[in-house]
Amino acid sequence: MIAHALILVVLPALLLAAAVWDIASFTIPNFLQLGLLAAFALFMAVHPLSAGDFGMHLLAGFIGLVAGFTLFSLGYIGGGDAKLFACVSLWFGMTDLLAYTLVASVFGGALTLGLLAMRNWPLPAALSSQSWLLRLHDEKEGIPYGAALAAGAFFILSQAEIFRAAIAG
User: Fold this and answer.
1) How much is the pTM?
2) 120 contacts 75 by C-beta, under 8 angstroms
3) How many domains does the chain have?
């Protein structure tokens, strides 16, 4: 029952919070990544995987961390995005890492193109009092990629191995 709640409620809630926070402030607080890590640890405690499967989840998280911080060091994504990618990669493991990465990249491309197009149009006066919209509309600002990372996770979660394992167990 706890495994179900973690995969169906806690994980999606943390992902949604990260996406909304990133859109509103271009930051993803560390407590959200810590929440993802703690929820994964609790998931492992109540629904343990084999040592090999657990190792594959750790490897995916490590690969996500290296890839994320490589992209961060090149200036393509923010540090919060890099950490979020690593945490979500931990949840998906090696089995679903490639699918997650590809889907999140597609969502990230769509988000980037959408924001770039939006930034070419004037912001309606009725919306100009919203500081978060002004920030999203500002050409000098980056892209809140955490939203794309969360969307990618939502998109593949129900087909992911960890989801099936939690629901079946």
Assistant:
1) 0.93
2) no
3) 1
